[in-house]
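Example record

One chain of 198 residues, shown exactly as stored in the release files.
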Amino acid sequence: MPAHSALTGTNLHEPKGVAGEAQGKVYVSDGSNSGSWEYLPTGWALYHDDGGTQVFTATAAKLTVDGVGTDSISTYLPREIRGSDELWDVATSDVTPITLGDLYNVQLILPVSAKTTSPKALIVVFDVGSTGAVSEAILTKTEEIANVTTSDTLVIDFLVRTTANFVTNGGQIFLSTDVGTLTVNNPSVLISRAHGEQ
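Predicted structure tokens for this chain:
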């Protein structure tokens, strides 16, 4: 009879405990000769605004997305919060991370409906402070918009790491122009968990 370590092909069996686990779980070693069955920590959701236009000026203003637009979808959230929580708080328009150490990709989808005084840049600030204004920015990104027209949709991507204050306060997104105004209509935010701390 061959040693268990020498078995191949159809002689191999499923991992121990697989019969009692839910679909989609994988076995994760704990580094101490054991492990547990867990869902992969990734997932995403799209939140679409149905509140109309938002005008951004040279003074930073918070992006709001009410999440009731027809394109909103939460079907593919990370399994550990699916059906019980969200990655976006529709009441406060904050990104709501799951746990410290996570990494999130945030995509802003901004349909442009008007521009005045020829703004050349849109400044995006991701803030994890406890106020409704920029107080603890962990990311600032400048997007070129000189050639953007009122028939365009701006798509802006960035990665954010989850700090302690991000967990406590959520993440706010502030937008401003260099000059003039930029008006967007029913924006969306797509949030995907790129890495989940385990």
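Notes: The mean pLDDT is 92.
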